[in-house]
Structures are given as structure tokens and as C-alpha cells.
Amino acid sequence: MDDGTPLYSIGELARLTGLTVKTIRFWSDAGVVPPTDRTPAGYRLYGPGALARLGLVRTLRELGVGLTAIQRVLAREVTVADVAAVHAEALETQIRTLRLRRAVLRAVAGRGSTPEELELMHKLAHLTDGERRRLIEDFIDHAFDGLDVDPGFLATMRNAMPMLPEDPSPEQIDAWVELAELVQDEGFRAGMRRAADDQMRAWAEAGRPGVEETRRQADLIRERTGAARKAGIAPESPQARPFVDEIVVASGRMMGRQDSPEFRAWLLEQLVSGHDARYEQYWRLLSVINGWRQPDMGPAVEWLIAALRAGGPAA
Q1: Is the pLDDT of residue 314 over 90?
Q2: What whole-number distance in Å separates Cα of residue 76 and Cα of residue 179?
Q3: Second label for 217, Cα 20 to 30 Å away, from 17, 23, 194, 269?
Q4: Residue 218 vs residues 112, 146, 229, 240, 255: alpha-carbon distances, Å
């Protein structure tokens, strides 16, 4: 072929592109940069188009595109845009995986985990959102199945699912691993079921508040006991009485009951039976995983329990 078009040897292409002779030969053998001609001795020669083709191939390879896909692009079977879209999605998946691995490794480094703990953390962290949901739903089904639990309460439990972000922190990985272990603990499941059963029986006798009333009561307890604690008022002191009275009266109103020694004894019993440190931990871990404002009901309930005990049965 001698039409005045400049031809380049592999060595000349290597100097012009900065690629190695070995790489160009490999791509040429793969058919993505075929030679234009050959010398009488059989050496490959390439036309000017090879320079542009090599530039495109190098760019696509650096972006992780395979030679088969590159051949289809060069043959006009697919567009560069099509290939870019597919590989961008693949890279997103790889990036999420790498971020998750990084978070696991940082969590492991922070807690000084054993090889067994490392394996467990890796396994639990790489569960899909659906697998995490099924783990929590299995716990909820086991803990509350067959009990006359308020539907709104169950809906709240089922809607509060752990959702690890794409780039979780080591603290979120730690919280998810701890939560996964907690909900699979038979003692925790049995304790949650007993507490729920006791509460359902008590509500059947005293009148069951709805989910909205329960939420308002929790907000009231948190706010009023928080104000008392901020003021430095001890639950056993006389200064605690107005705060306790306000909470008791408002709680009774939500349940259609009057303040009385019997109601205060009942309320105290409910607070004690429902105050499980592990239940508080369940919601705290969920809050860490999902980036929610962490609940602070534990100190609030403890203050009110102590205040009700100190105040005695008198209304």
C-alpha cells in the first residue's frame, strides 16, 4: 500500500502515544487496533487512524471497560454513551462495596476484633437492605406473634428498619452488628415478649392508649423529667412533686383515668415492666444506624420511677 498516507511501526506508535510496544501488540492481536499494512518482512504498519483509535482504547481501558465492549464501540454496534452508562452503574456498585469494606475495617481496627469477629462483621455488614429487613421482621414476628398488640405499635416497629447508608461510618457498622446480634438473642426476644404480654394484660384492664397517646406521653415524660433534671431536682425531693403530678394527671387523661393511688401504682408498675435497658439499646442502635436523633427515654423513665416510688401511693 503506497498512496502517500503515512504508516507507523509499532515502535513509532509507542513513542507517539506513550504506550508500550507490548500493549499495542496485545490490542492489535485482540483486533481493536488492526494493522493497516505489513512490511515485506511481515512487520505490522498502522495508519494515522490508529493514533485516534489507540487514544480511545486507552481511555476506555483506564475507565475499566473490557476489550469486548471496546470492540463493539469501535464496530459501531453500541455507542460510547451506552457503554459509559453501564460502566458508571458498575462503578457505583464497586464504590459502595469499597466504602462498606473500609467502614468494616475501620470498625475492626477500632475495637481490636478477633478473626471470628472480623468474619461476623464482614458477613453482617454485607447483607442487603432486604436481608436486614427480614432479620428485624423475624425478630418482631417472634416477639409479638399471637399477642394482642396494638396495630399502630407493630406498624411503628416494622417501619423502623435499619438502613445503612452507602458510606457508613465505623460507628454505624458497629451499631448494626450489635443490633443484629441483639435481635437474634433468645433472651432478648423472650424478654420483649414477656414485657409486651404484661403490658397488653395491664392495658386490657386499665384501658389501652393508642400509639399517638403513647407517643405524647413519652414526649411529656421526656420533657418534664428533663426540665427537672436540668434544674438539679432529685426525684426523691419535695420539689419533684409538681413534675410528677403533671405527668400523672396528663397520663391519666390520655387513658380516661383519674389520678389516684391505684392509678399511680399501676403507672409505676408499667414503667418498671417496660423499662428494659436492652429495649432502650435497640432503639439507640437503630438511631445510630439510620442517623436519627438518639432517644433519651432511659434517664427520663428512671427519674420518674424513682420519683413515684419516693412519693408513695398518695395522689
Answers
A1: no
A2: 52
A3: 194
A4: 38, 26, 16, 18, 14
Comparing 208 with 114, the larger pLDDT belongs to 114
Residue 315: the pLDDT is 47
Amino acid at 18: G
Closest CA to 226 of 218, 214, 236: 218
Q: Which three cell numbers stand for residue 225?
A: 423529667
DSSP the chain: --SS---B-HHHHHHHH---HHHHHHHHHHTSS--SEE-TT--EEB-THHHHHHHHHHHHHHTT--HHHHHHHHTTSS-HHHHHHHHHHHHHHHHHHHHHHHHHHHHHHHHT--HHHHHHHHHHHT--HHHHHHHHHHHHHHHHTTS---HHHHHHHHH------SS--HHHHHHHHHHHHHHT-HHHHHHHHHHHHHHHHHHHHH----HHHHHHHHHHHHHHHHHHHHTT--TTSGGGHHHHHHHHHHHHHHTT----HHHHHHHHHHHHHH--HHHHHHHHHHHHHHTPPPP-HHHHHHHHHHHHHHH-S--
Residue with grid cell 409479638, as numbered in its chain: 144
pLDDT band at 246 (very low <50, low <70, confident <90, very high): very high
70-92 pLDDT per residue, tens: 888 888 887 878 878 877 777 77
Question: What's residue 245's pLDDT?
Answer: 92
Q: How far is the C-alpha of 56 from the C-alpha of 37, rounded, in Å? A: 21
Tell me the Ramachandran region of residue 26: left when phi exceeds 0, alpha when psi lies from -120 to 50, beta otherwise.
alpha
Least confident of 100-109, 160-169, 195-204, 301-310: 195-204
Rounded Cα distance, 185 and 177, in Å: 13
